[in-house]
Amino acid sequence: MKTLASRFGSYGVLALFVFVAVYPISRILTISLRPTDQLLSRSLAVVPDGASLDNYRVLLTETPFLRWLGNSLLVAFVVTVTGVALASTAGYALSRHRFKGRKAALSGILVTQMFPATMLLLPLYIVLIELGLINSYVGIVIIYSATALPFCVWQMKGYYDTIPASLEEAARIDGAGPWQAFYKVILPLAAPALVITALFSFMSAWNEYVVAAVVLQDTEMFTMPVGLKMFQGSMSTQWGLYAAGSLLVSLPVIALFLVLSRYLISGLTLGAVKG
Amino acid sequence: MLNAPTDAMGIEAATLATDPAPRRRFSDATRHRVFLAFLLVPTAVVVLAVVAFPFAYNVAISFSNMNIYTLRDWRLIGADQYVSVFSEPAFWAVFLKTIIWTVVNVVFHVGLGVFLAVILHQSFIKGKSAWRVLLILPWAVPQYITALTWRGMFNFEFGAVNLLTESLGGSAVSWLSDPVTAFVAAIMTNIWLGFPFMMVIALGGLQSIPGELYEAAEVDGASAWTQFRQITAPLLRPVMIPAITLGTIWTFNNINVVWLISNGGEPNDQTHILVSYVYKAAFSMYRFGWAAALSMVIFAVLFIFTQVFLNRTNATESAY
């Protein structure tokens, strides 16, 4: 039924939007490759004249880049582990067990999505000062975990809801305790949801700038977003460093994203669509 | 992910009906309680520590005179801060700007997202996963990086936006030095950042629509537009409504893009939405009580919006 024109048009639209999506990212590559004497260029070529990897060398050897990368990895890793551990258990309880306050807990979790982050930031900042947690990762890890958890808990609960309860009943009849039934039978089946929870937790910690900028004050302690913003300060000469850093930081995330995006697409809809 | 709530409620209703039998499995009530506590308490503690306590604290200081001078000995002064919020000359202008910001962004996110998803979903498209991955890139690259990259692209002399405009015969625009164009620049950036997410949600929703419906429509001679209106749109609704709700909340509260594109409200604090205004008031001017009151106003606006929107759209109803 499809005419040649509509096929052609469809590919045209896709190509146009791929250009729009990819072009700004290609600019980062271009700026990072520019030699230092041509930082401000009016050229639109993707690979600039006299392209050099100098920015990458400076970044890796003369700035705290690797240190920040390590900090970010540490924070994101701890947040991911915390997020997966807490969301997988709480989501299970909310999916399988009836208890007082269950509905209140579920809707309370949704309401937290309506708080402006700034609204939490303000009292948290004051509390962190009182507790002496400014310039420490403890506060940041707790805040990031709590930010990611509401979504993750709902997501896990929705997934558990699609797993038949008869599986646990069978396990219980075979003599498994409630913990074993959960851990050995249900949890492995929820692997796709766990992957999404992990990805979401990782991304929310990896990308966060505002809280980190307020809490972390020592250059040595900076996470990637705060560190990169420093190159962006007032000096245009740091654009090259900033671009090179941005690209290096994006690579692991893009790789992670590409690997997991297949699960993500099926997982996102598993809850909602009953078909 | 965003859809989980709708579904979970449906399943919850279904399981409630058959509940008594499984409940009897747990003969040892205490053990059951310990197990439940073990599952739930850690999450409750973390979320409450970070959300509930600051919320109460925030309510308290929104009625107080707290600022940089009274940080340690603030006292309650009643609703003065709220009066001050509503009588602030810039408040209504920023509020209006926030609404424009939210509506324009969400309309484009959803419009482009669904449009691209429908095109990409057509059976004759080759290399779906490659197209999908390329289109998802704006979402995959960390937001602070792309936002700052866009700020560079809006540079008057060296930015790609002006260079492209000039090479196409247009004249350069001084994007970031004028409040209106700076705001437009922030909106363009955020549209670019947000459409892939909605596209992914819509793509997921499309996969659940049975192909026979379209075959039947083809037999009846329905046009592509009629098919979209009669089949695609109603069946995407249950997936899109929760995504639109959360997308609206996230956009309303998205400080990153406005803050990074305008470098904290430049020019001259003219480029703000409510949430960046709160940030500025609290962390540049240390007017904590005032900022807390404004935060409460934002929360109230979103809370009311969500209730009305979810009620009017019957978001919890099934499509079939």
Cα separation of the termini of chain A = 26 Å
Helicity range of chain A: over 70%
Percent range of helical residues of chain B: over 70%
How big is the Rg of chain B? 24 Å
Counting DSSP H or I runs of 4 or more residues, the number of helices of chain B is 14
Mean pLDDT over the full residue set of chain B: 80
Low-confidence stretches of chain B: 1-21, 315-320
The whole-number mean of residue pLDDT values of chain A reads: 80
- Tally of DSSP β-strands of chain B: 0
Largest protein interface?
A: A-B, 112 and 115 residues
Low-confidence stretches of chain A: 269-275
**SS strand fraction of chain A:** under 5%
Order of helices and strands of chain A: HHHHHHHHHHHH
Q: What does the largest sheet of chain B look like?
A: none
Main sheet characteristics of chain A: none
- Supply the helix-strand structural class of chain B: mainly alpha
Shape of chain A: globular
Element-level helix/strand string of chain B: HHHHHHHHHHHHHH
Rg of chain A from C-alpha positions?
23 Å
* Residue fraction in strands of chain B: under 5%
Task: Describe what you observe in this structure.
The complex is a heterodimer of chains A (275) and B (320). Chain A is 74% helix and 0% strand. Chain A has helices spanning 4-33, 54-62, 65-96, 102-111, 117-131, 137-161, 166-173, 178-189, 191-207, 210-215, 224-231, 239-270. Chain A has twelve helices and no strands. The model of chain A is unreliable at 269-275 (pLDDT under 50). Chain A is an all-alpha fold and 275 residues long. In chain A, 44% of the residues are buried. Chain B has 320 residues and is mainly α.
